Amino acid sequence: MIKLKKKKILLLPGDGIGPEVTDEVKKIINWFNDKKSLGFETDEELVGGCSYDKHGTPITDEVFYKALESGVIMLGAVGGPKWESVEFDKKPERALLKLRKELKLFANLRPAICFKQLVDASTLKPEIISGLDIMIVRELTGGVYFGEPRGIKPIENGERKGVNTHTYTSSEIVRVARIAFDLARKRSNKVISCEKSNVMEAGQLWKEEVQALHDKDYKDVNLDHMLADNCAMQLVRNPKQFDVILTDNLFGDMLSDEASMLTGSLGLLPSASLGAKNKDGDMRAMYEPIHGSAPDIAGKGIANPIASVLSFAMALRYSLDLDKEAEVLEKAVQDVLNDGLRTKDILSEGMKEVSTSQMGDAIISKLQ
Ligand code: NAD
Question: Is residue 289 within 8 Å of residue 311, measured between CB atoms?
Fold first, then answer.
């Protein structure tokens, strides 16, 4: 059994803009170590396409072992056109799926927050999204992306058949629902659970298990159920009706992308993938921006590092029990935006354009 080191941070910058945005997180970790003596221990390794180029695999056993003993994994992004023709099992994204699955990171938390300074960046009307603050809790290690049987096989008449299996057990549903209810208690105390119980048995089980857990342990939290297709529609119609949305892997993939794009700011949104707590109350967790490796802007020094920085704020809050430091870091980001500093992706008239590293430095100057 590998012992988890709570304060060990494994940096996996990855490909494309991943290393550029992770550099800014490194500066912030160093700042907390130097100024606040928080004693973070960091290590850095290759993952994704860069690991494939050097080692012929998107993640080596050595890096995977390091991930197992690290309390916090900070991922940049992986992938890009360079590796599109690589065989399926060696694709950069396989490293992420392996980390999520093997580290049992079953709960994916994706906030969709509309920064008041960037209301105009959304395609929706300001009054619909101003003040928006939703947390989507997506089940990450079960459902149709992992269910067996799966595959493509030949059938009669020269046709082929593609199969994936949508499957959930009670315990898989209950453990992720618990995370959603616990989070709701720290927010506006409201969970909306989404499935397709009208047409899927696994959805019916989802609804029943969530309701049963609520009635047993979380009666104080408001719980509603909503069909996932209705949720997709309601997110555009009236997103502020939501606080915590709990959903499965497949629907969560789509609903969280939809919710994040409501805010119009891909470069600003963080995410966390959490595992179960051990007997000491510690857990494995991986934090990453929701955006990809952005090959179109890689190497230009214009990537927005805020999503990565806010991912580290989530790590401070959820893995390191440093709520106050998380708030300070989030406030520093707000202050920089209030000062009118913008990377190219969120630049608007009258604002000052800054590079990736200037944005990181500005956040640190606000921390001071
Ligand atoms: P993307 O998120 O990389 O980029 C979409 C658009 O948003 C691009 O125009 C890009 O320039 C812009 N953008 C993204 N992040 C930005 C930032 N921080 N600052 C400024 N602009 C930013 O999505 P894509 O183009 O669909 O995917 C590119 C590659 O990333 C693909 O290989 C994909 O598989 C991979 N990907 C990886 C992850 C991950 O590592 N978790 C997630 C999504 C996509």
Answer: yes
Query: Which residues are CB-contacts of 330 (< 8 A; sequence separation ≥ 6)?
Result: 310, 313
For residue 134, give the amino acid letter.
Answer: I
Identify the helix (H) or strand (E) that includes residue 341.
strand 341-342
Distance CA 57, CA 335 (A): 41
- Atom 34 of ligand 1, residue of closest alpha carbon: 79
What is the average pLDDT across 149-168? 95
Q: Output the pLDDT for position 117.
A: 85
The tokens 């969709």 sit on which residue? 112
- The pLDDT value recorded for residue 288 is 96
Adjacency order of strands within the sheet including 70-77 = 41-44, 5-14, 70-77, 283-289, 270-277, 107-113, 133-139, 244-247, 190-195, 222-227
The pLDDT tens digits for 53-101 are 999 999 999 999 999 999 999 999 999 999 999 998 999 999 998 999 8
User: Average pLDDT for residues 275-297, to the nearest whole number?
Assistant: 92
| Cα–ligand 1 centroid distance for 228 (angstroms) | 25
Q: Widest CA span of the chain, in angstroms?
A: 70
- Judge whether 120 counts as a catalytic residue: no
Computed on alpha carbons and rounded to an integer, the radius of gyration of the chain in Å comes to: 21
Determine the distance separating the centroid of ligand 1 and the alpha carbon of 241, expressed in angstroms: 29
Counting Cβ atoms within 10 Å, is residue 350 exposed (0-12), middle (13-18) or buried (19+)?
Answer: exposed
CA angle 69, 100, 256 (to 5 degrees): 135
The closest of 304, 334, 364 to 76, measured between CA atoms, is 304
User: 């603050």: which residue's tokens?
Assistant: 133
In the predicted model, what is the mean pLDDT of the chain? 95
Name the residue at shortest CA distance from atom 38 of ligand 1: 292
Q: Which of 141, 153, 125 is CA-nearest to residue 179? A: 141
pLDDT (average), residues 316-339: 95
Residue among 104, 96, 128, 99 nearest 264 (CA): 128
Domains and CATH numbers, the chain: 1-106+275-368 (3.40.718.10), 116-264 (3.40.718.10)
* pTM, entire model: 0.92
